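Side project, low priority. Logging it here so it doesn't get lost.
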Amino acid sequence: MVGVGSDTSKRSYVSHRHATALGFAPRRRWSGLSRLMITGADGSMFLEEVIASTICGESLKQCLKCETCSESCPSGTDMDHTPQRLFALITAGKRDEVLHSNTPWYCVSCSRCVVHCPQEIPIRDLMYALKGMSVREGLFDEIQQDSNPLPGWWLWFIWGMIIFSLIYVPYHHMFENGPFSGEAYLPLNEDVELRSPGISSAVAGSSKSAEKMTAVSKDPVDTIQGRKVYRANCAPCHGASGEGGIGPNLTDNYWLHGNTPDDMFRLINEGVLEKGMVSWKTLLSSAKIWNVIAFIQTLRDTKPFRAKPPQGIEYSK
């Protein structure tokens, strides 16, 4: 190795031994590359080039060879040279070996080395500079990146999803040959919900009399189900307590589109697009709409906080 056996190397080794005996130097053996950094043999030109290409590059000469940067680097196990060893190669003038090294390319710029370095050497900027030198000289193409293939089951799953989408999208969205999942389950939901005691006794096609609606509104099962549907779908516009908001107040005796159960059913089912109310017939089953109407009947004269002023025509109770 360059420098080993020379007078300069002997003097450096003797000085280190004496300093260790006096307690001024760490008690450990230095590698040949570390001693090479002390001698500074045959590397001044490359070192000066690296210093000129690095921000605050002059601080590279202050390296203590403590290897703190190497020990704190999270990518050190993947590098062919640790940062401290790379410094030694730079000082030794090993230009090709440095620029062909994968160390700068595995640097993740986390700055842990800079934070832990006692000399605050800009190691991250050094790695950027070495990357730039490698790119300018066209050496970066020789760096091989490992590529692990995806598992076979994963690829089959991806291809299966692609084939499924090629069939599903034209069938449902382009040619509209089949119902969507919500539409497919809507008749089943209606059949199940119509088994509720109050609803089953009061539903007669798509209309109800006032007497039957009053009976349904007193059924706790119907009102509880109606409250759930109301809070999930109606409360954003009419308020959690029916006090009104974007939509009108539902607790007073003033109505814009009629106050009978049939009027309410028609209003909810068809919507009022000019007022911003959408049609709920494709989103809610008939049973759920009647449940909501039953719950609205319980809101009459409750006088909630911050109720919206009356709108529409006043109807008798």
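Brief comment: The chain has 17 helices and two strands.
Revisit when time allows.
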